Amino acid sequence: MRLPYLLLDVDGVLIPFPDADGSTPATHTRHDVVPAGRSADNPVTVWLDPAHGRLLMAVIRTGLVTPVWCTSWRQDAATLIGPLLDLPTWPYVELPRPQITTSHPNGYLWKRDHVETWLGEAPAIWIDDDFTSLDHDWAEERTTRGAATLLIQPAPRAGLQAEHLAEVRAWAGRLLTVQAAAPAAPSETEAA
């Protein structure tokens, strides 16, 4: 059985966007990080909730999903963000650096075409704060053709919540039950 990928964004999910007054949730701690290609004397300040690492690992330890970073942070998610949350190194979707002025240049999230190619027909749970209705339609179409897909969209100023991860666990558990109950395809010798 193929485990669904858990595709995880960073900005607006693990790093909430500040309120109009510049405040972030009280649960989050300030960190200065230096992404690849950036000078050490020009770090980026991020705000992370240490509980996210524990919550994510509780889901990962169920064995129901395979975690993958899916963020414009690319490899920096694995080398900078993950360690601050005590997460092990996960693979990441190699996203391009498009020259765009909106995250929805075609009416849907710019990452989607790259994610679709990367996923193939694998099942997926994708957590991102920036989906449009066209992304939700895409997820329904994938599911209809047999590639079960769940999109979870946290509010970008609040970020990832425990209930989002409860939804991941429940959905992945149901998918595993359905896959286990499905009759196996006959082998070539049985079909002959």
* Contiguous uncertain segments of 5+ residues: none
How much is the radius of gyration in Å?
Answer: 18 Å
| Overall number of strands | 6
The amount of helix comes to 25-40%
- Give the rounded overall mean pLDDT: 92
What is the H-and-E element order? Answer: EEEHEHHEHEHH
Helix/strand layout:
Elements: E1 5-8, E2 29-33, E3 44-48, H1 50-60, E4 66-69, H2 75-84, H3 112-119, E5 124-127, H4 133-144, E6 149-152, H5 162-181, H6 188-191
Parallel strand pairs: 1-4, 1-5, 5-6
Antiparallel strand pairs: 2-3
Keywords:
single chain, 192 residues, alpha/beta, four-stranded parallel β-sheet, two-stranded antiparallel sheet, 14% strand, globular
Could you characterize the architecture of this molecule?
With 192 residues, this protein is of the alpha/beta class. The protein has helices spanning 50-60, 75-84, 112-119, 133-144, 162-181, 188-191, and strands at residues 5-8, 29-33, 44-48, 66-69, 124-127, 149-152. A four-stranded parallel sheet has the order 4-1-5-6. Helix 4 links the parallel strand 5 and strand 6 (149-152). Helix 1 (50-60) runs parallel beside helix 5.
Summarize the model shown.
By secondary structure, this protein is an alpha/beta fold. The chain has helices spanning 50-60, 75-84, 112-119, 133-144, 162-181, 188-191, and strands at 5-8, 29-33, 44-48, 66-69, 124-127, 149-152.
